[in-house]
Structure formats: structure tokens, C-alpha cells
Design brief:
Elements: H1 17-31, H2 44-49, E1 84-86, E2 89-93, H3 100-107, H4 112-126, E3 139-143, H5 186-199, E4 209-210, E5 221-224, E6 230-234, H6 239-242, E7 253-257, H7 263-274, E8 277-280, E9 285-287, E10 292-295, E11 299-303, E12 312-316, E13 318-319, H8 328-336, E14 339-341, E15 344-345, E16 359-361, H9 367-377, E17 383-390, E18 400-410, E19 413-418, H10 426-435, E20 438-442, H11 449-459, E21 466-473, E22 479-489, E23 497-501, H12 507-515, E24 518-520
Parallel strand pairs: 6-7, 12-14, 13-15, 16-23, 19-20
Antiparallel strand pairs: 1-2, 2-3, 4-5, 5-6, 8-11, 9-10, 10-22, 11-12, 17-18, 18-19, 21-22, 21-24, 22-23
Helix pairs in contact: 3-4, 8-12, 9-11
């Protein structure tokens, strides 16, 4: 049986009509806030039941929005797991296979160059010292651009929304950009390798091994010091990055900056890192008195050897022109004085050829031997016991034959030497030779090297003083030798000179004179 419908006590007599009208007008006023075009329906049955008035309002649809892409450093709303903005940073959760470089390039759309510049700042912000130790699920903060980034606005309503292109970020680099993948200067690294081989000859020759570098940067080679300490070589601008690298035993590791603009400083730091006490070279070291040898070095280094009382000093000259070989006798001479000469030089550079200054030692003794030595040194091709014919008297007379001790010609002139051994009757013949245009050079038994050389040089118009001269090694002046002698200009050689001395030379100095090219100051 259908339920009996109750009627309101005032209906149909409309006793409550004023109330209904009041309610109706209230609802109509409220409906106006939904905006023009909203539909409002009121069922009388609802009034009869006293139910709350319901209103179905169809709000105008928002126009379709284009997808926002690249609004924050390559971050897209499509990839919610990529990260989210938090103030100055974007938070990112590490995934399998992630590296900082991969996150910045693949996940956030940075170029490789910008990613490499930003890596040190990401590590600093997150306290990361070992980039290989990132854990899956770990959360890190990525810095946003310090400069203004282009953020796309909401797209206007279109029938079919199209994806917007990624926004360009002006820059994510630090205020002071770091160099991209810097490497150690190849020439300095080669010189360091050669220097290490000379400094530690007892070791096997080993190339500097590559070490572990910063993410996205070149690896750093290293050498091994005295006590096994690892010496990493890094380029300028990378020392602060290297300091953040992870590695067990950092107390047994040193970092040296290879700065081509300060190669001497690099050499000193290498020696210090290897366990040597270093100083600048200072004044040249001097050996001997007559002759006196001076040795100029750029750096000295010393190491206390256990069980050995004496202290070996390493003498380090910087020779940019290439490496010069030294005679073994001179190396032993320095070793006897507790010195080692280890040059910092480039073995790949061929030492240029220089016009050597010939140094001739003339032994003291018989004047005849000294005269022959001077004649040979000056390239005056003298003939011994030479016979000269001259005509005396009328034309057609028989020529006279005179034998002289030495005969030579120079600059169109004719010379002969008389050692005073001729018979008295030959003095007249020598006088006749002089009248015929021959010039005599008389050398007596009491003449020494100085007087013999002076007589010969004056005769051939090659004046030269017997005094102290300083000659130096070429090209860098590593050695300087002060010794007494005569510096002769060699005839017909375009200004070349020759040095003659009668001062006895120690074997190491003599060998050094023969091995190293020399010039005059």
C-alpha cells in the first residue's frame, strides 16, 4: 500500500507564504554570486520536506593549460621524482646509476660544460667528498640559477594544447667559473718525470700514473716521494677541488700545482713534497782558486740520510734549453764534496749547437814546445827546419840557402822563428833574410809562455793581453770559469776566439772544458 503523503499544516492555505517568499528571494540573491549564466532550480517538494536547498552550479571550465617544462633548471612536472623546489635549491633523490654529472645533464637538461662547472658547488652544498659514494635513495640539494631564469607562463586556451619547448636557463655556473676539464701542462709533466728519474736513479723508470680526478675533470698524475708519499700533480685552479676528493690515507698524500708561469716554484714544491728541505740557490758555489769554477743553481735541497753523518745537498739548475751531459769525473768531484747536480731540464729539447770557445792548455817547459803550441793554436801552419833560398848580389848569381827553425806565412807576410841554436856564422844569413823581407821572431831559452805568446801575437798583429778572463758555459751560464791566459782572436774565422793558458787544470775541470760549450763574458 502506498505511503500516505502528509501535508504541511499550512498547505494549501498558504499560511507560510511569507516565509517561503523570504527563502526564495534569499536563494536568488545568493545564486547571483556564481556569475551570470548559472542555472538555479527549486523544487516545491523540497520546500514541503524542509530539506536544505541544493544548488547545482556549473562553474565555467578553466582553459586548458600547456604543460610546463623546464621551469627550474631542466626540471619538468612530468617527472615528479626528478626533484622539487625548496627555496634556493631543488631536492633530488638518487636513482640507480646516477652520478652528479648525469643528474645535471640527463635529468635537468644542462650542457656538459655547465654541469662540470656546477659540480664543485653541488659537492660543497651537500658535503660530498667522494662522488662515487652516492647511495640510491639519498637526497641531495641542487642549486638554482643565480641569474634570472626564463620561466614559461601559462599558455592561453587553445583547442588542442601543444607541448611547450624547454625553457632556457641563462646560467647555473658559480660566480667565478672553473676551467673545464683542466689538465697538467704536458711539458712540465715530462720534465717532472725526467727529473724524478735523475733524482732517484735507483728506482725503476716509471711514468707518472693517473690518479682519481674530480667528476667530469681530467685525472691527476702522481709521483712517489722519499718515504712513499703520493705526490699528486694538479693544474692551476684545481687544488681546491682536489682537496675535496675522497681517499684513504690523505695524510700520506701531497698536492703540487703545476703552474707554467712559476716553474721554479713548482720544482721547489715537488722537492718539499718528496721530503727534502729546500732553499733558493742564492750566490753561486765556488770550487778551486786558480782556476776558480763557479756553479749557479736555482734551488738547493737536502735530505738527512739515516746512518750517514754527512748531508747530501741536491743542486738543481733550471735549464730551459735542454739537458747537458756532464763528464763522470766532474760528477765524482762534486760527490766527494757531498753535492749532487740534478738538472731540471727537458730531454725532448735538443741542445742547440754553439760555436765553442777552444781552450788550449800550453804546458810550461821548453820554449820550443810552447812556441809550437801557440803556432798550432793560432792555426799558423809553420814548417820545421825550413830551407829558404835568397839571391845576393848580381842577377844570375848562385842563390844562398838558409835553414830556419820555423817558417810560416800570414796576411801576405813571411815569418821565421829563431830559437838561438844557429851557428854564429848563420846570424849574418838571418840578417840577409830580414833584408829580403822575412820577419824574424826570436825565442830565447829563458822565455816563458807569456813572453813567447806575446812575441808571436805581436809579430802577426794579433795583440792580446795575458790576464784573468772569465768564460761561461753556453747557453745558460750554469758554469763560469775564471782563469789566467790569453784570449786570441782567430784569424780568418769571422771573429771567433781561442783561449790559451799555462795554468794546470784538474782533470774534472779539464773534462768539463772539453764536454760543455763555452763562451766569453
Amino acid at each position: 500500500m502506498p505511503a500516505r503523503k502528509e501535508q504541511h499544516p499550512c498547505f494549501p492555505n498558504s499560511c507560510g507564504l511569507p516565509v517561503v517568499l523570504f527563502l526564495l528571494f534569499s536563494l536568488v540573491g545568493a545564486g547571483s554570486v556564481f556569475g551570470a549564466g548559472s542555472q538555479f532550480e527549486l523544487e516545491i517538494g523540497d520546500l514541503e520536506r524542509g530539506a536544505a536547498v541544493s544548488n547545482e552550479v556549473k562553474k565555467p571550465q578553466s582553459p586548458p593549460q600547456a604543460k610546463r617544462r623546464g621551469t627550474r633548471a631542466g626540471y619538468t612536472t612530468k617527472k615528479k621524482a626528478e626533484g622539487r623546489q625548496e627555496g634556493e635549491y631543488v631536492r633530488y633523490t638518487i636513482r640507480s646509476g646516477d652520478t652528479i654529472h648525469k643528474i645535471l645533464t640527463t635529468r635537468f637538461g644542462l650542457s656538459a660544460k655547465k654541469a662540470e662547472r656546477l659540480i664543485p658547488e653541488v659537492k660543497r652544498i651537500n658535503g660530498i667528498v667522494d662522488t662515487s659514494g652516492l647511495q640510491i635513495g639519498q637526497t641531495i640539494l641542487l642549486p638554482l640559477a643565480r641569474k634570472k631564469a626564463v620561466v614559461p607562463q601559462e599558455a592561453a586556451p587553445v583547442p588542442a594544447p601543444l607541448p611547450a619547448p624547454p625553457a632556457e636557463v641563462e646560467s647555473l655556473a658559480p660566480e667565478t667559473p672553473l676551467p673545464t676539464s683542466p689538465t697538467v701542462d704536458e711539458g712540465m709533466l715530462r720534465r717532472a718525470r725526467d727529473f724524478w728519474a735523475r733524482l732517484f736513479p735507483e728506482r725503476k723508470p716509471v711514468e707518472p700514473l693517473p690518479g682519481k680526478g674530480a667528476a667530469g675533470a681530467a685525472s691527476h698524475p702522481f709521483l712517489t716521494g722519499v718515504n712513499g708519499k703520493e705526490i699528486r700533480i694538479v693544474p692551476p685552479g684545481m687544488q681546491h677541488v682536489f682537496g675535496n676528493l675522497s681517499g684513504a690515507g690523505t695524510e700520506n698524500r701531497e698536492t703540487v700545482v703545476a703552474d707554467p708561469a712559476n716553474e721554479k716554484g713548482f720544482v721547489k714544491e715537488l722537492l718539499q713534497a718528496a721530503g727534502f728541505a729546500t732553499t733558493d740557490g742564492g750566490a753561486p758555489l765556488e770550487f778551486g782558486s786558480e782556476p776558480k769554477l763557479s756553479l749557479k743553481v736555482d734551488v738547493t735541497a737536502a735530505q738527512r740520510i739515516p746512518g750517514v753523518a754527512s748531508r747530501k745537498t741536491i743542486l738543481v739548475p733550471l735549464e730551459p734549453s735542454g739537458c747537458q751531459a756532464l763528464p763522470e769525473s766532474f760528477v765524482s768531484y762534486l760527490a766527494a764534496k757531498d753535492f749532487r747536480l740534478v738538472a731540471w731540464c727537458d730531454s725532448s729539447v735538443i741542445t742547440p749547437l754553439f760555436a765553442r770557445l777552444p781552450v788550449v792548455y800550453v804546458p810550461t817547459g821548453k820554449p820550443v814546445l810552447m812556441a809550437d803550441a801557440v803556432l798550432d793554436a793560432l792555426s799558423l801552419n809553420a814548417s820545421r827546419d825550413y830551407s829558404i833560398e835568397i839571391v845576393v848580389g848580381q842577377t844570375g848569381a848562385a842563390p844562398l840557402r838558409v835553414t830556419v827553425d820555423r817558417y810560416f806565412e800570414a796576411e801576405g807576410k813571411r815569418f821565421f822563428l829563431d830559437f838561438g841554436n844557429a851557428a854564429p856564422n848563420r846570424a849574418t844569413l838571418f840578417r840577409l833574410l830580414e833584408l829580403a823581407g822575412y820577419q824574424k821572431i826570436a825565442v830565447g831559452d829563458t822565455d816563458d809562455f807569456r813572453s813567447v805568446a806575446a812575441k808571436i801575437s805581436a809579430a802577426v798583429s794579433m795583440p792580446a793581453a795575458y790576464r784573468k778572463h772569465i768564460i761561461s758555459s753556453l747557453p745558460d751560464g750554469l758554469f763560469a770559469l775564471e782563469m789566467t791566459g790569453i784570449l786570441f782572436p782567430q784569424p780568418n774565422t769571422g771573429g771567433k776566439k781561442i783561449f790559451l793558458t799555462d795554468i794546470p787544470l784538474e782533470q774534472p775541470f779539464f773534462d768539463l772544458l772539453k764536454t760543455v760549450p763555452w763562451g766569453t763574458k
